[in-house]
Structure formats: structure tokens, C-alpha cells
Amino acid sequence: MYNSYELNESVRRALDQYSQSMIKIAFTYLKNIADAEEVAQDVFLAYLQKRPVFESSEHEKAWLIRTTINKSKNMLKTGWFKSRNPVPEDLSYLPKEENEVLQAVLALDKKYRIPIHLHYYEGYSIQEIAAIMRTKSATVGTWLARGRLILKEKIGGLEDEKISL
Amino acid sequence: MKKSVYKSAMSRVKTSENFEEATYRKLMSEMEKTTPSKINDQKERVRMNTAKKRTITGWSIGIAACAVLSVSLIATNQTAPKLPGQPPTTITQPPISGKVAVNIDGVITEVSADGKSFKVGDLWVQVTDQTKLGSNEPTATAPSEELLQKEFKVGNIVSGYTSQDVGSGKVTADVIYNNMAPAKEEASAPPVTGKAMVNIDGQITEVSADGKSFKVGDLWVTVTDDTLLGIPGPTAAEPSEELLQKEFKVGNIVSGYTSEDLSTGKVNATRIYNNMAPQQ
């Protein structure tokens, strides 16, 4: 259990260390920065209210990522989110190549987007992704392979790039 | 797809500059709103809500009960006889504006020559053709002649109300509920018949030679054939020999009662519950 000072400190530290990762994961899901930031705030609120106890900083990060994914899914299911027709996030400020890659990933089905993001951005292995997403490693491997194949067809890629297990 | 390109692209995606600070402030304000005991204990929150609901329900029931009691008290007082010596009561000054009903309630001290006006306290009350006699409430019973006599007499107890200004000292009654003779002293006197029961309870200090009488304190108690033994009642167990011994002995603890006068110092027991040896 935390006292209020420890809680404040742990929240502030988590904000410093993980908020960007969480926003990016939510963005990968929702394709909108404002929504992604809202989800991230909700996750930190849950963190404050539930006061989970973690074994390590990796455990803490995995919990935050998992909660971000769940809350992003929940937001996608809400009626108001489905009913609206938002303007696509303006990523024109990115260099051309980066913009193309990012748009290609965001265009993937969401079941491929998240493993791709967790692997290429966060650097998680298949087993780690499987643990976070609470699914089988083989399934994650399949999602990654299919996602990469689609991306390769769209924008090309490094065929010899290995994915760590 | 090059890993570095995607990572670089995602790293460049712009987010709110003050996200961390704004989030931290929001979290702290949320934390202040919810006390520590409430943050992580949903059950407590439910309990508190339930307790509030119970409190509200309790107050509602209490207020409703008070209202019912008030109504019933008013209804009772309208028909209940007043003691002759009780001073007449009238409500204090009515408000400046609006029309209010002022109770007329008390003993008639004076009656006019025509018998249509009477004095209660300092107030002269006139009864006209417009004055309603008896209660006009839907559930009220028809007034009896005893409770609503036709003639107003000195000493009668009257109750009713007027909507006129009592400050003038003379009003016309809107309604007269009761006009009844005061209750007679005999009627209120307590009954003189009846029998009182007196407990017999204590330790036997002396036993008569025939063993049918014993002394408890200063009282000699005789057990006759009419004396009932044991504890009555459908749920009472049969008296055991241990608790209700056949023989009265010095030192035994007895309990029971008598309906006879104790002042003689000697009574017959009406019932003996227990007659048991003292605990060692």
C-alpha cells in the first residue's frame, strides 16, 4: 500500500516515464492524439484509484500498456466514437518517408497495429507482446507476420529483418 | 518496413506540451475530491450511500409518523373532555394579513341572555345560523347530543374555531365541534374494587411444625390446598423437584405471590413458583 506522498511520487514518475508510450499506443488504436491523451489520463486515474502494487518497473509499464489498450478498445466501442466522423490526424509535419510508414501502419487492421507498434516502437518480443495482450505467442507471431506482409506490399521493407522471440 | 523509420515517425508525433503537468494537476484534484478511504474501497462507498438512503428514509418515516400523530392528537382532543379547572386556551394574535382559523377551546364562563353567545376566557363567541355544528370531516361520526348539546351553559366545555380577528374580543364561531357538560368526579374516580398481588420472594428463616407454613422476612406464608404450584403458561416447563421441592426447609429460597393483605403478617400463598435449596 502507498501513503499519499508515495502515491503522488509514483504517479509523477509514471507520468514522466510512460505517458508518451501510452499516448502513442492509444494513438495507434484510435488514430487521434486528443482521444489518445484522454485515454492516457483515464489510465492514470485508474492507476491512482486502484493503487496496483508492482513487482518491477517493467511490470508497472506492462500494466499501464495493458490498461491503455483496454481503455482504447472501450472508447472504440462507445456510440459517440462510432457515430462521429473525425478529421484525420494531420501528420504532414513528418518527413515524407516517416509519414508514409506511419500512415501505412495506421491503415492496418487494429489487431495487427498493436503488435507491430509494440514490437517496432517499444521493442517488445513476441512473448512479451503475448503476455501484455494476454494471448498466445503463436497468435502474436501470426499477427506480426501478416502485418509485416501487408506493409511490405504497400511500402516495401527489409525482408531479412528478424523479429526477436 | 524499417524499424527505425517507424520509431522515428512515432517519436515525432506531436502530443500536448503540457500533458504531463495537466494530467498531474487533474489527478491531484481528483485525489483531493476523494478521501483516501474512499479511493480504493467501493464497498465503503456503497455503504455510505446506503447509510444516507437509510437516514433519508428514517427521517421521512419519522416526519410522516409525527404528522400522523399530530393529526390523531388533534382529532382526539376535539372529542376528549377537558378538566373543569383547565383555563380556556386561545391562540395568540393572528398574522397581520391573510385569514387564519383560531381555535375556540375552553370552559364557558358566561352565557348571554339570548343563549347564543358565550364567553371562553376573555373572548365572547357568538353562534349564528352560519355556524356549523359538529365536524364536517368525511370520516367524522354524527355528533351525539351528549357531546354537542344544543344549549350553551356555564361550565360546559366547548371547542371549535373562528376565522375572525380575536383581537376584537368578540367573534362569530365558524364551527363548534363540541359543547358538552364537564365530566363528573365520580366518573373519573379510579375503581375501588380489584385485587393486588404481592410477591413472596426470599429465604425461609423459619418453618412451622406442620411444615405447611414458613417465614420469609417478617411474613408468615401458609401453603394450602388452594395454593398453585409451579410456573403457569403454555411455554413453561414442568417444575423439577430440584426447583420446586415438596418440603419447605429453613434456608430454602422461595418465590411466589399472594393476593392477601400483608399487613396482618400472615398470608396464604396464591402461587409458589420455586422452593429450592440455596446453591452451595
Automatic annotation (TrEMBL), chain A:
SUPFAM superfamilies: Sigma2 domain of RNA polymerase sigma factors (SSF88946), Sigma3 and sigma4 domains of RNA polymerase sigma factors (SSF88659). One of its GO terms (molecular function) is sigma factor activity. Residues 16-78 form the RNA polymerase sigma-70 region domain. InterPro entries: RNA_pol_sigma-70-like (IPR039425), RNA_pol_sigma-70_dom (IPR014284), RNA_pol_sigma70_r2 (IPR007627), RNA_pol_sigma70_r4_t2 (IPR013249), RNA_pol_sigma_r2 (IPR013325), RNA_pol_sigma_r3/r4-like (IPR013324), WH-like_DNA-bd_sf (IPR036388). It holds the Pfam family Sigma70_r4_2. Residues 99-149 form the RNA polymerase sigma factor 70 region 4 type domain. One of its GO terms (biological process) is DNA-templated transcription initiation. The keyword Transcription applies. Keywords: Sigma factor, Transcription, Transcription regulation. Belongs to the sigma-70 factor family. ECF subfamily. This is Sigma-70 family RNA polymerase sigma factor. It comes from Paenibacillus pinisoli.
TrEMBL record, chain B:
Keywords: Membrane, Transmembrane, Transmembrane helix. The chain crosses the membrane at residues 56-75. This is DUF5666 domain-containing protein.
